[in-house]
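Review form for a predicted model. The reviewer records the input and the model, then writes brief findings.
Reviewer: anonymous (R2)
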Amino acid sequence: MIFSSIFVVMDYERIASFAAANIPASAQKVLNNIRVYLTDTLFVVIRSYVLIMLLTFAELSILFSLFGIENAVLKAAVIALLDIMPILGTGGIMIPWAVISLVLGYTGLGIRLFLIYGIVTVVRNYVEPKIVGTQLGLHPIITLVSMFIGLRLFGFWGLFGLPVGISFLWKEHVAKKTTEEAGKIE
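Model under review:
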């Protein structure tokens, strides 16, 4: 993917001129709308997940400090960074840490870690669809369902791609409907 991206960037002018010569104008308009929307939406999605990451960092820092876990801020920062990856996430670190603590006889620490993980997970599951949905202009339920379906069908990229795709289709539908209504008024 990285090499493909480099080659596309290197030959962008040739690819663009080939597309302009061989793709019908109506399709070019649609493709341009998609490109503009994806470029704008990419920053919206990044901003959404930075907000979620900062929220997770704040939660973990506070809870780690309250429960007396050493190096609370550093550990919270590392876990918040890894939390963005859905495969690893908070649970990929917190659960093994809690289990190992219990196995090694640190029962209090293990229980506290499970409790912290539970709190962070509940907050994240509540906040993520709201933040991402608001940023994309979708209802939180639609965002949550599309994130789940996207993750199941297309993996990591589907987690982000399906909500963005649905948002694009919704905005195109609303724009078309608005244009039709404006035409009826005239």
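Findings: The chain has a mean pLDDT of 83.
Further findings: Residues 174 and 180 are 10 Å apart (CA to CA).
Recommendation: see findings above.
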